[in-house]
């Protein structure tokens, strides 16, 4: 075997090992590469309680309940399902009913989500692109006023 053939064999072997490692990493992260899951996604996938994830959707009108010691309960909905969210802490200033949000936390049961952080849109002209796309796909889109700004 010549020196050039050994070098090409080594480079090919190293490339194959890197490709295999990348494939294993992507396979392991398959379910966690999602920016958020809607309530319908969580119910359709039969996500097990105790799973950490992000929940996205609209805050359902008339469901925000504020309790003692900064305890807040509300429901997040999409076109097909709703999910109760329990949160303790300060909400973003722009949090309100009918608002698009993304909450990060742990699924407690099939219909209850315990959030440890809540993110809301930063002004009336912005909604996270993933939330807007999901709402459009489900037929629950509220118009172009909530669209993400277009990049050029």
Describe this protein's structure.
The chain is of the alpha+beta class. The chain has two domains: 1-33, no CATH class; 35-147, OB fold (Dihydrolipoamide Acetyltransferase, E2P), CATH 2.40.50. The protein has three helices and six strands, in the order H-H-E-E-E-E-E-E-H. The chain has helices at 3-28, 39-44, 129-137; strands spanning 52-59, 65-66, 71-77, 82-88, 100-107, 112-120. Strands 1-3-4-6-5 form a five-stranded mixed β-barrel. The longest helix has 26 residues, at 3-28. The protein is elongated.
Strand order of the largest sheet: 1-3-4-6-5
Under CATH, the topology of the largest domain can be stated as OB fold (Dihydrolipoamide Acetyltransferase, E2P)
| Measured distance between first and last alpha carbons | 54 Å
CATH class of the largest domain: Mainly Beta
Q: Estimate nothing, just give the exact number of structural domains.
A: 2
- The biggest beta sheet, please? 5 strands, mixed, barrel
Count every helix, treating DSSP H or I runs of 4 or more residues as helices. Answer: 3
Helix-strand pattern: HHEEEEEEH
Structural class designation: alpha+beta
Overall strand count:
6
Helix content percent band: 25-40%
CATH superfamily caption of the largest domain? Nucleic acid-binding proteins
Low-confidence stretches: 145-152
Q: What percentage of the residues does DSSP assign to strands (E)?
A: 25-35%
CATH architecture call of the largest domain: Beta Barrel
Q: What's the overall geometry?
A: elongated
Radius of gyration: 21 Å
**Overall average pLDDT:** 82
